[in-house]
TrEMBL record:
SUPFAM superfamilies: P-loop containing nucleoside triphosphate hydrolases
Gene3D superfamilies: P-loop containing nucleotide triphosphate hydrolases (3.40.50.300)
Region (Disordered): 24-60
Naturally occurring in which organism (per UniProt): Takifugu rubripes (Japanese pufferfish)
Protein name (record): G domain-containing protein
Compositionally biased spans, kind Basic and acidic residues: 29-43
InterPro entries the record matches: P-loop_NTPase
GO biological-process terms attached to the record: immune response
CDD domains: Ras_like_GTPase
Ranges annotated as spanning the membrane: none
Amino acid sequence: MAKSNGLFGFSFGTAVPAPTPAPVLFTMGRKEEPEGGTEEKDPVVSLNDTLGSKEVPSALNDKKETNKAFSFPRLSPGLESPWRVLKWTEEQRTTLMKNISSYKPSCTEAARVLLLGPVGSGKSSFISSVQSVFNGRVTNRAMVGSFSISFTKKLQFYKIRSLRGQQPDGLVLCDTMGLGDSAMTGPTLHDVLSVIQGHVPEGHVFSPVQPVNLSQTLGYRKRPSLEEKIHCVAFVLDAVKMSSYHGSLSSSFQQLREHISELGIHQVALLTHVDLVCPETAQDVTNVYKSRVVQAAINQAAALLGMSSSYVVPVKNYSSELDVDHNTDVLLLNAVDHILQLTWKFSEEGPF
């Protein structure tokens, strides 16, 4: 796998100058050939392929597959037993809330978790949904948009509070600009790694033409403390868009993961909007771990990111609801608890 050459070696969102012959430029949505080159469309990984369709060959090997919009596969009966076990009781909800509220890392005041994902994947909605659970009502703490371009433009830190008026818990969720799908959108790989290493201050506005650097970034931290660094990265993917993500997205994500791993940072993935791809889950969220469609989407997300499916957890964000729901709370809290298990490893063991 190619190594980054630092500031000018790789870009998620912008074409960067390079000596001739010009290399292929990577974006989150497609490969772009240098001017005069021959463009070849990347394969699209289809959820129906994961479900075992015999009519569509493997998307990773067939270069002739065309881009397809998401469609529900033919509904089949859910699994007789859940493929993951999650208790949906009020006792479980209370236990998860207590575990999260009492969490305190041993080496820092709070664990910082960076959310990374394509535009519109649900990063900001997840932050607002988690805070809604503890508020007992749906709130929009992180500004949420519904545009094709990233609504979040700057780096923002959200300290999760279990009770109003009290000190925040030991968890900080970090929201940033969505990874772009065109030549001039999204932060560069250099910017993402600078955030993880703690060089970038809160409030920094990302620009594809102005990378983070010591001389031009206001508040740049030359020697960040452990408190200012990221302790876990959570990738966020949209289950509805799994079939429209291009094959080049996989290589981009896996290259990013390689660099993050070199920094010793643990990683997890959140699969949002699972209720929109599975009617049974939409009717009753407790069906999420019985759903073949959700299971297939999780396996596909794991393959896209190059990680084990055990590190991918489904979530249902609050969107149109006015009141919180017990079962949705449990699913969200379970995801946060999964993240905190990895931040605990960082706190106790340090970077792996």
